[in-house]
Amino acid sequence: MKKLVWQLLTLTIALAFVLSACGPAATPEAPAAPAATAAPAQPTAVPPTAAPTAVPATAAPTAVPQTTVNITHYFSDSLGKKWISQLTDGFGAANPQFKVADNTTGHEDFKTQILVMLAGNNPPDIFSYWAGARTQFVVDANRLMPLDDWWTANKMDDVIPASLKPLATYNGKIYAVPMNAHIVGFFYNPKAMAKAGITTMPTTWTDFLAMCDKLKAAGIAPFALGSKNQWPAQYWFDYLVSRTAGPDYRTQLMLGKAAYTDPQVGKALETWKMLIDKGYFYKNANAYDWTDAADQVAKGDAAMTLMGTWITGYWDGKGLKAGTDYEFMPFPSIDPAIPMVVHGSIDAWTIPADTHNKDGALALLAWFLKPESQAVWAKGQGALAANKNTDPSIYNPVMKEAADYLAKTNFLSGYDLSTTPPMAVGGLNMFALMMNDPSKYQDYMKQTEDVAKQVFKK
Amino acid sequence: MIKNTTNQTISSQEVEKEPSRFLHLSQQGLLYLALIVILVIYTIPGLGVLLTSFKTDTEISMEGLWNLPHALRFDNYVNAWTSGDVAIYTRNSFLVTIPATFCSILLGILAGYVFSKLAFKGSEYVFIFVIAGLFFPPQIILIPLFQLFNKIGLYDTIWPMIIVHTAFGLPICTLIMRNYFSAIPIAIREAAIIDGANEAQILTRIMLPVSLPAVAVLATLQFTWIWNDFLYPIIFTRSVQARTIMVGLISLQGQYSVAWGEQGAMAVIASIPTLLVFVFFQRYFIQGLTLGAVKG
Amino acid sequence: MVKQRNMWAIIFLFFPLAIYTVFVIMPLLSSFYYSFTDWNGFNPNFSWVGFDNYLKITTDPTFLNAIKNTSIWMAAAIIVPSGFGLMIALILQRKIWGANFFKSLFYLPICLSLAVIGQVWIWIYHPDLGLLNLTLNFLHLSFLTDAWLSDPNTALFAVIVAWCWQQIGLAMVIFLSGLTSIPQELIEAAEIDGANYWQSLWRVIIPLLSPATVVVIALAIINSLKSFDVVYIMTKGGPFHSSDTLAMMMYNESFQKYYIGYGSAVSVVLFLIAMIVIAFYFRQVRELEHLYD
User: Fold this and answer.
1) Which of B73, B104, B119 is a domain's end point?
2) Complex ipTM, two decimals?
3) Would an 8 Å CB–CB cutoff place A81 in contact with chain B?
4) In chain C, which residues have pLDDT < 50?
């Protein structure tokens, strides 16, 4: 009997030993570990499928000691993955001392993944992140590496447009390097517009409302909105606030220095309510995804949708032609006295403070920002390149318009990237409530301010 | 479903050799009709998955899901299989699922046997303690677990999934095995003890053979659950070499778009092993040894 | 004798409890610890806030709402999949033609990844192109159509239906295995005594199925308290928390708002509720078992 107990104990110890013995071999922390830090179970080193690369792979990789650069990003759809791997393959071929290990997951799971990795003190060497309040959140936790030296050494001021530099800077230092920009505006179906007899697009608010009436009379819903996942509705709030109360007020609101019960917020929501009450929105916005809204516009059931430039990638994928099937129009001015801003989002790269491969991460970062890489990326993603020296011929006519508009307009992030994450959850809920029943907007303002009080500890 | 009409059949028919009951043709027809109606409604979402796998994303977004595809294309299947590292993912899925299924059932048998036949003072509290582990939403312990695996150097290997699934599978395996063992008469065990058998012998030679149906059920369920899990591999691994097929499937969801067609195809491919496991094991738990045989 | 029995109990329990303690209980204890802090996950510096998070729970309307939704979910989980699962198991247990094929079909939903299934259900509930509304329109029942997932009155039930659908196969499998352990002679004896099918079902089959039923119901309780994936895919708890479950809320607090401390407190409360429910349940089960001993 006792013998058995002892045998079991020995077995446990043996098991523990085996487990810990497996460990070191697989630890990715080893500074100059050979490339394959794979599962110990079966070390079948399957080489990454050689994708067509811009740079011919001439260097013999055996000569140089190779280190791995672990990259995590949220460009997880097939296009994003394809173009990232094209860039990293090119990088690997040109820099045989580095091997890039890409560990993308689904976009939504990325948030959980990156939090757990940082909290568990084993972050990737470089990861994509949303510039703005989310990056600020990580910077405030001292988890990111300042990139000022790299920025100056690589003369980034000549590369990144000045309007985007604020999105790279946090607490006075550079922490996030923009990879691409997306701007938000009205994407419309010119054929649906023509059907309602609209030939010139409005620039003033009165003309804009007149156009909506015309569309509605022709049986076409002026706006499609798919706010099932809440965030698509935020751009209405963004533009209505910054066009009626001004960008400075909006920034104050985002930082918790203004209240959601202010008359400025009231006015924006009132305008929004007016648009809903007039029946300008395609019904049941909260039931649809943003892609549903894009489809409604493409089919001509609705005339336009307030969305980011990524919609061009979606439509191009469906075989729509820029310029004939869809067009871009900035959100019109409401109060001419107020300076125009453009809302959107910046995808950026950040490097953790405790990265295992600083040199590799910085080299990869520089590679991503090269005009050639930027051209490949922006074209493939349907995004606006962050490098202003990127060849503009990569853009289709609609993206060209968007790029020109961004070049001459101040940029502000969208709501959920401008305010701190817990506040964003509360605000997004308000926007969905607006689309459900705008009549109670004053109640929503109070509820949202209650959230703000808690979040900003007012 | 089975209305009173069946009663006469049951009582009038002699049921001797065949354990099943004979039904008249008309009644059998009714039964089939009912079954088919249930099945049609029941299989619609499954058919939906099949439909997506044959459609292009454009077709889905422009016409909705519920039309027949324009042509029978296998592009999505080809893409799902060739793009990325599906072969490695699949291999890893097997490397994780088979040992984790085996270990969790093995431990569940041991614990379940104790709680049903070797109950000691306070053992029901230990039992509740084991079962209680099932109730935590797993997300909340991701961070501590990540730290643990990182510290012992198992991060980015397939070990964390094997270990965590074994540990988290333990409660359900214990519960099912305990319940199954409880239904086995104590007299059998006592007779064996009188014959000089020890508990290990009783468990392996008497209890286990009788419990094959329960083990088969567990094997099926555990295999399915572990195979379909994507949370742990996403969190505990980062390289292709350690990831499972479900990660490949989840990775098709992008920031702004989802490759529905390819995802549907991959889901169909990924469901084949679980379905085969079910088909293989079901004869054990459906036509397996019955307790009656032991009792007699 | 008793001593030897206990010795064996220790040997048998050693490995299960060791693994369980290290990989489930220890991480649980650290999340218990986090529940007393204001940790946001990113910041290595966080402070001890005592019972603040727990006090916040008592006044948080979203928590009460999540409790309510989870209770509804649990009730549905106990009744619907077990009812259908039992019915299907009883039909398929007969030696009818193609039974194995049907069994596989009923098991199929569990084999398919939830990420994909959830999406298909979204397409079923889609307001314009969804199968449900299309069918209702076809049957001239247009007044019944709805934007199922965006209507706060229907969202929770729409998600529960999708979830129950997937769980039926699970209940069926366990009932099928339970049915095999019922001695055929007992049923036959009941029938020879003149019992009709319903009587033998109620008096013989269902009581003898109770070990399987215990498992099915325990699983239903467990899975409903943990219900997350399908909510996450279909509604993310919305609209306006109308389909929030406790697990969904815990996720939102921890990974959307980065209130890991508060999220941990929610999960500790969830754990305590679960302990009470399961302890109560097993007390009932034990009484039942004594009845049939």
Assistant:
1) B73
2) 0.85
3) yes
4) 293
